[in-house]
Design goal:
Strand 3, helix 1 and strand 4 form a beta-alpha-beta unit. The N and C termini lie far apart (41 Å). With 82 residues, the protein is mainly beta. The protein contains 1 helix and 4 strands. The relative contact order is 0.26. The protein has one domain.
Length: 82
């Protein structure tokens, strides 16, 4: 994926954010779905950058390879069985 990888802290959480496009471009926030990462936007961000837009594609909670939150209820996925 082109662009640069930034790391930002929000409270006790750390998120990786892929940024692409001109610094003065209008910002576009790209959110991935479950169970994807910011890399799912790799085919789109160069096109948006060429159009003059600045893209921000964060790895959402629990998906940043660099760091996820400490084990907590907000990141657990419960499997239901019958």
């Amino acid at each position: 994926m082109s662009g640069e990888l930034l790391r930002t802290d929000v409270g006790d959480l750390t998120f990786d954010v892929r940024v692409d496009g001109p610094e003065d471009g209008r910002p576009v926030l790209l959110l991935h779905g479950f169970p994807q990462t910011s890399a799912s936007w790799s085919a789109v961000t160069p096109l948006l950058a060429q159009a003059g837009l600045r893209t921000y594609a964060p790895d959402q909670l629990g998906y940043s390879p660099a760091r996820g939150p400490a084990r907590s209820r907000r990141t657990r996925c419960r499997t239901w069985r019958r």
